[in-house]
Amino acid sequence: MWFKNLQLYRITSGEITPEQLEEALSLHSLQQCMQMEMQSRGWLPPRGEKENFVHLFGRHMLIAFGVEKKLLPASVINQHAKDRIIQIEQQQGYKPGKKQIRDIKESVLIELLPRAFTQRRTTYVWIDPKEKWLVIDTANTNKADELLETLFQSVDNFTLEPLDTKTSPSAAMTRWLSGDEPPSIFTIDRDCELQGMEDEKTTVRYTHHTLEAAETLRHIKTGKKVTKLAMTWANKISFVLHDNLQLRRIAPLDILKESAETTEELFDSDFAIMTGELSQLLPDMVDALGGEDK
After folding, report:
1. Does residue 217 contact residue 178 with C-beta atoms inside 8 Å?
2. Which end of the chain is more exposed for a tag (fewer CB within 10 A), N or C?
3. Would you state the pLDDT for residue 237?
4. Does residue 32 sit in helix, strand or coil?
């Protein structure tokens, strides 16, 4: 139950208890797509075998957002529509006009929708009401926006702002690869991306490559800035910091895991360890970037 990616938000207003959140989410649960629906979205129990919409450990809450989507590729619709257009052309003796073609495609879509397969996607959210963190496990900003839109529809008087720091991640990462040392609790790993400032945005990537100061500084002096940098925190968690303040490729390193005999115990143990460690990593990261810009 470790998050792979972190999109970070601050809770700016609204106090909500686990009981209030449970009630609010249960009223907007994910429903199966109706025959003529392309997509359905709503909340799911984060533990599939349990009915609760809020998983609680101490003050930390875990919720799950679900999207069910019909799989109906445009190529399939176009092929069926093409066959229908040819058939109609033979019947009426001339090619259908633009409006008729549009109507044919809409008719084909309506016919195919009930037979389309559905795919479900689940995205998890960690909420720390005491420290005002809301963290989404996704690297896709569109998926995060979709989740937050549903959250605001579900929960009243609840507002968020993306985390912002006084020093931009790109400026800090560029400085660290120019000779300045990051805070001692962080170490720099072997993956990095530098991007030029010109229109073409020339990009240099290092993968599993020791980052030599002289080599990276040469690129920085030509006007490139660091947009991604692999790092490790406290010899416990590795990640890649991006210039938009996302943390991706989260991986725990040699963190002691409590023994768990059941899947339920393992889930609880992982969530407890993850929230405990990330609750320390995030303030350290904010401090490394000059503090929070409020």
Report:
1. yes
2. C
3. 96
4. coil
Q: Is the pLDDT of residue 141 over 80?
A: yes
Contact 255, 277 (CB under 8 A): yes
Of 99, 243, 271, residue with least CA distance to 177 = 243
Tell me the chain's radius of gyration from C-alpha atoms: 24
**pLDDT tens readout for residues 61-100:** 999 999 988 777 788 778 878 888 888 888 888 888 888 8
| Residues contacting 43, CB < 8 A, separation 6+ | 25, 26, 28, 29, 30, 53, 63, 64, 65, 66, 150, 154
Distance CA 161, CA 148 (A): 11
Task: Write down the domain spans for the chain.
Answer: 7-70+116-162, 74-114, 169-288
pLDDT, one tens digit per residue, over 208-237 is 888 887 888 889 998 899 999 999 999 999
Of 247, 244, 220, which is closest to residue 232 (Cα–Cα)?
Answer: 247
Alpha-carbon span 104 to 109, nearest angstrom? 9
Counting every residue, how long is the chain? 294
SS3 state at 39: strand
- Report CA-CA distances (Å) from 97 to 80, 83, 94, 103: 17, 15, 9, 10
For residue 171, which of 226, 244, 221 has the smallest C-alpha distance? 226
